[in-house]
Predict the structure.
Amino acid sequence: MSGLVFRARSKPGAICRPRRLSGMPSPDARSRPPESVEGFALIDVLVGLALIGVITSLMMVFLGQARTMVRIEKATEFQMEVDAASRFLETAISHAEPLPLSKSSPDQVLYLDGDAARIEFNAVQAIGFKSSALREIAVSLGGNALAIVQKTRRGSQPGASTQSEPVRLLGGVSAIRFEYLDGSTAASSWLPSWNAPRRLPTAVRFTVSVLRDGAAYLASGFARLDLANARQPPRTNETQRTNETQRP
């Protein structure tokens, strides 16, 4: 009886499938993508790229302005350094004293000796707080630096001086030019060198050219020596005899 019922319920050609346990998804359900998954639309991608482009442009402008400001600040510092060296030379030369240099000889007594790239003179320089001393100063261009050398005067003899080590006054100097004003004649003129005995020039002017980081910097200076010339140097025996013969 049971066998007849089993054959009546089964159909020819039917395939027996295993039972699916409760709680397990069917294979068709696993192969279908979930309907809740969301993605980026094309408009979202375009907006993101536009924002990135705007931010990049702003950053490039800001970096360019920052580099320009740094370059301007560096150029200003270099120019201030050149101007400071020029003011120092002006002050030192304007304090030149009508005193013989250590290189002077009895036949040729020089108060100031110089050419277009070098100058030597005597001047009173500050050596400490509220103290000063007489120094023989030599300024010249050595290599690519403007150097200053000071000699301590210990007497009037040429060998009675002590020379110090050269001090770098300004670096990167490509050229320097001194000129000397001769005011002893009616038509004053600027000379490229000075070696007049027992006489200082009326004024000294100079130009300093500096080359740094591919940029050129220029500074000019002007020093008057009228006050130094106004001091009467000690008269020689020959001058005294000439004045005595001219007396009535």
